[in-house]
Amino acid sequence: MYKFIRTTAIALLLSLELASGSGVEVIKCNSIGQLEKVEVTGCESLPCIFERGQDYFINVTFTPNGNSSNLRFNATANVYGITLPLMAGNACDILADGQKCPIKSGVQYKIKMAAKLTKFAPPIRKLLIKATIVDEFNKIQACAGLPARVV
After folding, report:
1. What per-residue confidence (pLDDT) applies to 99?
2. Residue 13 vs residue 143, higher pLDDT
3. Which residues belong to any copy of the MD-2-related lipid-recognition domain (predicted)?
4. Of 51, 73, 102, 136, most Cβ neighbours within 10 A?
């Protein structure tokens, strides 16, 4: 089950005011930067419905409010009231379009990810993935929550 939830978080990355663009509306949490857009393949409205055995692609666009030489990301899942740690890592490694750290305040950045949701995952009626991008000063530059179901 833990491996499934971890895979789900990778597929959903990138918790409370609604944010949108041409992507899906997500729940924003407290951050000093601006979450611009979250795009998840196959998700046009909330909760996102994810099918086991499918590939998912995630694009997250944000604008930091502060310079930083590095970024890290952290993801958790709340499943049936239990918060589980999912993944953490270097967000500089997943910046898109040739962008690299250090990041500069006021410049728009994009993160791109892809993952497959295992076909052996159990169905989950209610899931909230929360992902944060944190700078070297432990300031949250972007934060989002994505309500989802797994079928």
Report:
1. 96
2. 143
3. 26-148
4. 73
What pLDDT is attached to residue 59?
A: 87
Residue of 65, 73, 56 whose CA lies nearest to 121 = 56
Q: Which residues contact 25 (CB under 8 A, 6 or more apart)?
A: 18, 19, 45, 46
Cα–Cα distance for residue pair 66/59, rounded to 1 Å: 21
What is the Cα–Cα distance from 134 to 91, expressed in whole angstroms? Answer: 9
What secondary structure does DSSP assign to 73-114, as a single string? EEEEEEETTEEEEEEEEEGGGGB-TT--SSB-TT--EEEEEE
pLDDT digits (tens, 9 = 90+) for 21-62: 446 678 888 899 999 988 888 888 889 898 999 998 888 899
Backbone angle region of 66, left / alpha / beta, with phi > 0 → left and psi within -120 to 50 → alpha: left
Say which amino acid occupies 41: T
Q: Token pair of 117, please? A: 């949701």
| Single-letter code of the amino acid located at 44 | E
Amino acid residing at 37: K
The pTM for the full model equals 0.79
Q: What is the Cα Rg of the chain in Å?
A: 14
